[in-house]
Amino acid sequence: MTALVFALIMALSIGVAILARVGVRRMDIKQFLVAGRSFPPFLLFFLAVGEVYSIGTMLGFPGGIYGGGASYGLWFLGYILLAYPIGYFLAPLVWRAAKRYDALTVPEVFGRHFGSRKFELVIAIGSIIALVPWGQFQFIGLEVVLQGLGVPISPIGAVLIAASIAFLYIAIAGVRGSAFVAFVKDAFMLLGIVVVGVAAVMSAHGISPLFAHATAAAPTHVHMGGVALTFAMTTIVYQGFGFYLQPSVSPYVFPAKSEAAVKSSTVFMPMYMLMYPFAVFAAFFAVSALPNTKNPNGVFLNIAHDLLPPWLVGVVAAGAGLAGIMVLASTSLNIGAIVTRNLVPNVPAHSQRRWTVLAVAIFLVAAAAMTTFTPALMLTVLNLSGYVGIQFATGWIAIFFARKVHAFAAGTGIVTGVLLALALYATSPQLGGINIGLIALGVNLALTFGLSHLAPGRTPQAPIATSEPAPSVSVPNRPDLPVTNA
Amino acid sequence: MLRSRWSLVIGLGIPVIAIVVVPPFIANTQVTVFGIPFLFFWMFAWFPLTSVCLGISWFGFDRRHYLTPDGAQS
């Protein structure tokens, strides 16, 4: 029964992806990757929250609290929440830059702003290094979901099914497929989290006893201090600040039809987080009710199995599954576009869509294989993606605000930041809990602006923030003005 | 680029204080609200409150600059 409901909801999602294709007469590469920059605020809202609340929300977040205590909860809630006020001010600049340079991918913005093909290549390779763990993160979760359905399925079978559905969304309708599937995904994910959270509270006979039991079972899980607190706070600052500037997120701003659409859709995004209290209830319920779960990532679904009828478990699993598959689809589209447009030179425009779909398929197979052979705790993989991806933030800051930063300085900063973050991650020195990405970002920032100051090079285009915001196209009788490069 | 200081103070300053500055001071309290540990209650409360701050910035200060033609060419 669980598996049947799950399969039906997956079929529904593929139907919705087909629906997304209807009415688009010419699916050229711009339609395929950024929907011709046409999304109104509500579609942008669903695409963006669809990407933000990945499978990590349903599995990694409760699993993190269960395995690591309250500091994981504080970190996860804090960084996403902080991302919105920062994004409200920075995301419109990301859109303005993409529009000015007519860019469909992040490396294009960097390459064209700094006037450097080499820099475009560096950013393209860096993006892929950051995106692969992000995709892998979804696969790890999808394995947990599919194996929890009660049908005999091998880990390889599980990731292949997930990869095939993700491929279908993209092959059918590109970024439109992602945005439309996001509706279905959000509906089932919200429903799943609320149902499990309410079931946990009811089973514990109220919220007070739920937390009281958790405190009694594991006091350190509810309160925190010292190193764990330092880690949570520095990670909130690092990931919240860099959220919209990492290559796994910035492209979702591109399909907006205007800066006003970007800004106004961000206003309501924090409200979406009102589902998290239910995930927190479920996680703390598990601390006392299911104290010996071996795989923390599976703890949310274990609660569902214990408290809910089978068909409802299918709904919950479908919510988690869709969240993972949808983000996987968008991530693979993102990678496919970078390979076709930035890594491989001179792919003619009319065949770029075909090549992108092929690159998507190759990535999905490669990432599926990597996941099967190198499993890891979900949140560790998530951190790894952030350590690399958020180093791009200095480049964006230069694009937004700096007049003198040139390609060599920005490139050296970012590459050093990435290498330093990876080296610190590999050697894990004692730093009192300070997030290593934040340290690397500091070095990155100092190099980018220091080198530009010491060795002035070719001045790039004028900073994005000095040009006026492009007006919304919602003003009647007024075509969208081109943004000048003054 | 920035037309309103108030937009920045309300839309960014207040949420940053609430999310980044306050939590270390309340991380270890035993106080609960509706049975929820105060730290989590505080974070939950700031989901809608952050939207309120951004809403004030957008509807009160920024929106007009994006929706009217003036400024586009200044």
TrEMBL record, chain A:
Topological relation to the membrane, as annotated: Multi-pass membrane protein
Q: Which GO terms describe its cellular component?
A: plasma membrane
Q: What subcellular locations does the record give?
A: Membrane
**Residue ranges the record marks as coiled coil:** none
* Pfam families registered for this protein in UniProt: SSF
Q: Which family does it belong to?
A: Belongs to the sodium:solute symporter (SSF) (TC 2.A.21) family.
Q: Which UniProt keywords apply?
A: Membrane, Transmembrane, Transmembrane helix, Transport
KW Transport (keyword) present: yes
Name recorded for this polypeptide: Sodium:solute symporter family protein
Which residue stretches belong to region Disordered?
Answer: 460-486
Q: Transmembrane region positions?
A: 6-24, 44-66, 72-91, 121-141, 153-175, 187-207, 227-245, 266-291, 311-335, 355-378, 384-401, 408-426, 432-451
From TrEMBL, chain B:
Q: Which domain of life is it from?
A: Bacteria
Q: Which UniProt keywords are given for this protein, alphabetically ordered?
A: Membrane, Transmembrane, Transmembrane helix
Name the InterPro entries for this protein.
DUF3311
One Pfam family in the UniProt entry: DUF3311
- TM helices/strands, residue ranges: 7-27, 39-61
Work out whether the entry's keyword set contains Membrane: yes
Q: What is this protein called?
A: DUF3311 domain-containing protein
The species is Leekyejoonella antrihumi
